[in-house]
Amino acid sequence: MTRIYLLPFLLLAAFCLQAQQLSLFTQYRDHIGIINPAAVESDFLAFGQNITFGANYRAQWVGLENAPTTQTVRGSYLYADGSGVALMAGGHLMNDQTGPTGFTGLYGRIAGIVTSDPEVGGFVVGLSAGAVNFRINSSEIRLRDQGDVIGSTDQSQFFPDVGVGVYYYHLVGRNDDYFYAGLSVPQVIGLDLTIQNDEGEYVTQRVQHFYGMLGFYKFFDNDSFLEPSAWVKYTQGAPVNVDFNLRYYLPVNFWVGAGGSTAGTVHLESGVLLGDATEKSFRIGYGFGYSFSSFGPSAGTTHEINLAYSLFH
């Protein structure tokens, strides 16, 4: 029996900074509901908008053949009236491709906010559930012996997937600034993807990822705000990776941001908001990343486009 571990990054395993199997995001605050099913969307904290629809395209390590690409579509709704326990619901569709391997997942999420007023703050418990299709183009994967391949038939299997998270947010200070923090395991069910053919059995193993997130919205009198944030990632067998970011939203509906990670990467972002931020608005964001690790010049750059439509209802 032949075993292949971490197959989704087989071609890039020598370069993978943190043995990360789940998709990454440069503009991670805009994907906080994917990272943590209990998280309140940034549109609600920043602008008071409780309905958000978004789409994202990310191309990682541009310049390397068969480099990862990720596409997502997402939606979220927060029932902002009343007190006691407020509800939040949403979902997302994600497609990720790395060389001959990829996955597509469809998820729904639901969360309860224990609060006296959702606009003031609360403690949130969330759950996501869905199904993931893992696929392998077998003929493109070569094993240790030259010419030895898994097979000529593409492989595809479906698996259930569950994520859990907790989240806390609250107004602080005289300017009604927001503090938020959360912990999550977006993939609770680990799995072994087994592929069999006439030559033997091949297994790729996925493990749980543990995420932490921390941030603060500092609002100013001119309708601008500053948001420092951090995303902590831990996967068994890999070092802890911390991603830091600082974003400044200008009063002219434009924002800029910059950050870096303990893995030796840096990223920049900017974007524009069209419409009224307190009612209906459309946002276009762009993120750029580069690695200063030993393989950075070979891996190329990372580019990410994020679109979002938000409103208050």
What's the layout of helices and strands?
Elements: H1 32-35, H2 42-47, E1 51-63, E2 69-78, E3 84-98, E4 101-117, E5 121-136, E6 155-172, E7 177-185, E8 191-197, E9 200-206, E10 209-219, E11 225-235, E12 241-250, E13 254-261, E14 265-275, E15 280-291, H3 296-299, E16 300-311
Antiparallel strand pairs: 1-2, 1-16, 2-3, 3-4, 4-5, 5-6, 6-7, 7-10, 8-9, 10-11, 11-12, 12-13, 13-14, 14-15, 15-16
Explained architecture:
By secondary structure, the chain is mainly β. The protein has a single domain, classed as Beta Barrel (Porin). Helices cover 4% and strands 60% of the residues. It has 3 helices and 16 strands. It has helices at residues 32-35, 42-47, 296-299, and strands spanning 51-63, 69-78, 84-98, 101-117, 121-136, 155-172, 177-185, 191-197, 200-206, 209-219, 225-235, 241-250, 254-261, 265-275, 280-291, 300-311. The strands form 2 sheets. The protein has a 14-stranded antiparallel β-barrel with strand order 1-2-3-4-5-6-7-10-11-12-13-14-15-16. A two-stranded antiparallel sheet has the order 8-9. The longest helix is centred in the first third of the chain and has 6 residues, at 42-47. The model is unreliable at 1-19 (pLDDT under 50).
